[in-house]
Amino acid sequence: MNPHPIPRLSIDQAASLCGSILREVGKAVVGKQDVLRSLLAALLCPGGHVLLEDYPGLAKTLIASSFATAMGMAFKRIQFTPDLLPGDITGGYVFDARENRFFLRQGPLFTQILLADEINRASPKTQSALLEAMQEHQVTLDGESQLLPEPFLVIATQNPIEYEGTFPLPEAQLDRFLVRLSVGYPDQGEELEILERRRERRQDGFCLNPVISPQDFLGMRQAVEEVTVDADVERYIVDLVSRTRRHRQVVIGASPRGSLALLKLGRAWAAMEGRSFVLPDDIKRFAPAALAHRLLLEPNLWGTKKAEVSVIQDVLQAAPVPVL
User: Fold this and answer.
1) Residue 165 to residue 188: CA distance in whole angstroms
2) Residue pLDDT, tens place only, 173-191
């Protein structure tokens, strides 16, 4: 018998727990509610790995650790560097001379929420060590498959302005991330609140408490699966993704994994809102975050900022929205 059974939660209960998580994370992260809610929606999806791409100092690491604490999950951080090896992430078998046997030394990959900090600073060989873990939730060491804890989520960060000494993520790995989000600078009021909170705390650290358990989180995921999706909404998702493949500025459009991402994100957002059905607006909301990083544009647009997002906006304007 499982000593920690997964509770059966209704959609309303899941929405209430989402609010509790966001309030706890809000004790450390000032403002940015739209980003926090989008990130939580992604985490509620199976395979909900998140890529945070933004400038240094915008609380990307703080956001990841705060969510892990609020959800009561094991958290580990890997600082990716050019000399990092795949074994440094996955671990491996080590010989114990005293007991005359090999034993498994688990790497930091064996956790529930993994922060891959500055992931593009590691070599492609090391980056590829995450592929099996992100897709299959297991690691193969010396021919033996080792299951990872459940849930297993990767939150990766990368700096979009520093390219010296970096290795761009290959398309196959970018496709494993459910969404790519940008935090953005705080406005003046939020930045003033950051200063005021730091002065009142008298320390850099934050004191957050778990508001749910990992089992509660798995129960929330099961509640998301109860959200219904109208056939017209599914056709709308497929139409959007198909249009990315036919766009004049796109060489390779979004894969079916992009369609699945929109489906899962739409259901998660509806559950967070306390709804048992998905609206077309839920899909439109996540289209840039779920599809932009899956596009391969024409070479003359590679250096253009926000080019992928512009393509998604063109697709959203051209696709007819279903009326439910």
Assistant:
1) 33
2) 888 899 999 998 999 999 9
